[in-house]
Structure formats: structure tokens, C-alpha cells
Amino acid sequence: MSDKLWGGRFSEDTDTLVEKFNASIDVDKRLYASDIEGSAAHLKMLAKQKIISENEADQLMAGLERVKAKIENNELAFSHQLEDIHMHVEDALGKECGDLAKKLHTARSRNDQVALDIRIFLKKETRQIMDLITGFQQQLVNLAHAHLDVIMPGYTHMQRAQPVLFAHHLMAYYEMFKRDKERFADAYRRMDAMPLGTAALAGTTYPLDREYTRKILGFDRLCENSMDAVSDRDFVMEFISHAGICMIHLSRLSEELILWSSSEFSFISISDAFTTGSSIMPQKKNPDVAELVRGKTGRVVGNLVAIMTTMKSLPMAYNKDMQEDKEPLFDTIDTLAICLEVYTRMFPNIQVHAGNMRAACKQGFLNATDFADYLVNRGMPFRQAHAVAGKAVAKALETGRELDDMPLAELQKFSDLVSLDIFDFISLDQMIARRVSAGGTAFANVRAAVEKAQKELRP
Fold first, then answer.
1. What is the CATH number of the domain that holds 229?
2. Which position among 2, 262, 278, 419 bears the catalytic label?
3. How many CB atoms lie within 10 A of CB 353?
4. Exposed site from 204, 315, 324, 385, fewest CB < 10 Å?
5. Residues 442 and 409 in one domain
């Protein structure tokens, strides 16, 4: 005869291997605080509706607090026999309150219970992730503010293209993470609906006051369809999807940090505290933190594939497959959180080599577009100016020079519109200063963007 809480209709004990296979406690014990919070709200509602007495509710509430303390003090042993955190809490409550604990589960199912627990838990974690993004954005802005006048090569196709401000480059990532925060805030609004009270899938016959429970738990609204309430994991998929995008942003930044810190670039140095060495090559200083962040992006993207594959063919309503939602979710939360935390600590210690960045701008004809713009400003159509500038670049390549190294007389062979002021026009500082179009890399624009971001980040 089965001794499970659900074992009334079973005549055999569960196979021990099935117990291990079926159990989720190794993963979902992390939900204990959310489970107890939801149970406490449920008890208050049951007492208010006179489904249980006030005295019974008080005893059970006190028992739940003792159970919570035991879990937090590592005094509660977890077992595969009890399957999940819900049954562990109920079993522990039975040891505290006797048979009275059996009233806790009145008018609810583990289906709406776990849906509630995940939402309570994920709301909190989403807020914390948003706070971590804000903290990292602050470090990006700080680094940008400290290097407002540093000029570096901008790249397309990994080829030097046009000069940009280093601060402008950093602020591009600020904008990426700003969108990430907006996505998480949007996801938060959708997960902020309470499923408790929808029971297994069809609602319950008990006279519940779900609005009362909702207010206790601080949810914005109720899940309106009982079948959707227990089977919805859209909010999990959405969170992991947004986390994947955020990790891709971190991965793109990691790739640049790795390149910039290489000997070939030497644009930055990463602190020794955030690098490692080689077991065989004494001279090595490896950007392992950046490489790990880049590598961990694959885990989070993989987690998204895992949860979407799990959910893709499930009929209504709850199915045991959904037990597989927590591992990818928890791993995603942990991975994104530690990546944001480690970068928040690493960025204040990055050393910027402004001279090397500026020197790199002197090679590769980063002023070729400005040479064409110079001609356009003197009346030449852009397509023609583009061709003239291209011929000037070809000549410079033949002679191993840059455009601004060529004599004025030689440049004038390409167009009689060229005058002595060409050299000032195609100088680095002038090229930056002129890019005043909204969102451009002009000194004034970037300074204003940094100041705007500083205001946005103020509490």
C-alpha cells in the first residue's frame, strides 16, 4: 500500500528508482520561501472564508514559520520519497501541527501551488536582475565619463572604418542593457498574475476569495482562466529569452574586451584580479573572465531551447513535463546574475590606453569618408566624391602613406576643389567634432548622452 500523500488509490509502493526519477526536490527546494509565503496567504484566505477556523489558521501559520526556520537552519532532511518542496513543507508541518496540517491543502492543488511559487520566486529574481543590470550600467557610464575625449577606431566587418569616441562605444552597450531592463520590466508585468485558487485545472467548489489572496501576495491581477493558470509557462520562456538576449550583449562586449586586451590591439588592460595565467607559459595573462562570460552565453541560449522544446507539444492542462521548467530557469538566473556581478566589479579596474587607441586611428584611412565629405561640401556630388576619395586611397596605398601624409599638391591632382584646409578637415578631432547628427559620436553629443544616463541611473 502506497504511503504517498496521493497514494490512496495505489496498491503498490513506488519503485525506488521511480521515486528518484520522479522527484524534483534536488532542484525545487530553492522555492521553499515562496512556497511558504503562498501557503501562509492561502491559510489567511481559508480562515477569512471560514473554510477553516481562525485558531486553526493561527496554529498552522506558526507551524509554517517553524518549518521555514528549520529549512534555513539546515535542520530539515530532504528525501526523494517526498518528491518536491510542496510535500516536504506539508510533511514537516505535519510534524509540527499533527493532523491539522492536512487542512493546509484544502482548495488547492500542487498544480496551482507550483505555478504560484514560480511566479513569486521569479518576480523577486527579475527585480534583482534589473538591479544588477543597473549596477553594471553605472560602471559603463563611469568608465565613459572618465574617458570622454578618448578617440578610438570604429569598426565594421572587423575592419577599421571611422573614428569614434571610446565613451560613445561604451554608451552603445549602455543602450543595449537599457533595452534589456525594459524587456525584463515588460516580462514582469505579464508574470505578475496570481494562479492560486484555480486548483488542478477547473477551479474549486470552495468559496474562495482569490482577490483577498492576491492582495496579500502583492500580485497585480488574477489569472483569469483556470486551465491557462496551471499550464502557463510563457513567463518562464519569456524570462529566459530576455536573459539570452542580455547574455548575447554581454558576450559581444566580452569579445571586444578580449580583442582590446590582446597585444595586437593593446587598447585596454584588464586588472590582474580578473585574469588568470597559464600552467606552462609564465608570461601569459589570459582574459578568462571575459571568455567565460562569452562561453556561458551558450548555456543560457541552450536553456531557452530546452524550455521551449519542453513546452512545444503539451496539451492542456498540467503535465509532468513541466517539472523540467525549473532547471533551465534557475541556471539562467544564476548564470546571468554572476556574469553581471563579475563585470560590475571588473569594469572599474580596466585601464584604458588612450594613446594606443588614437595611434590606431592614424592607420587604415579612417578619414577617407571625411575626404569625400570635404569635396561634397564644395559642391561635388557624393558618388563622384566617393570615387575621388577612393582613387586617393589607392594612390596612398601604392606609396605606403595615409591621406593626411600626402602633399597638398598630390591631393589636388585628384580634384581642384582641394585646398590647404583639407588637413584640418580630416584630422581626428575635427572628424569627431563634426559628427553632430543625433546619436552621433561628436564630443558634445557623447557628453550629453553620458549626463543623460547619469540622471537615468539616479535612484
1. 1.20.200.10
2. 278
3. 18
4. 315
5. yes
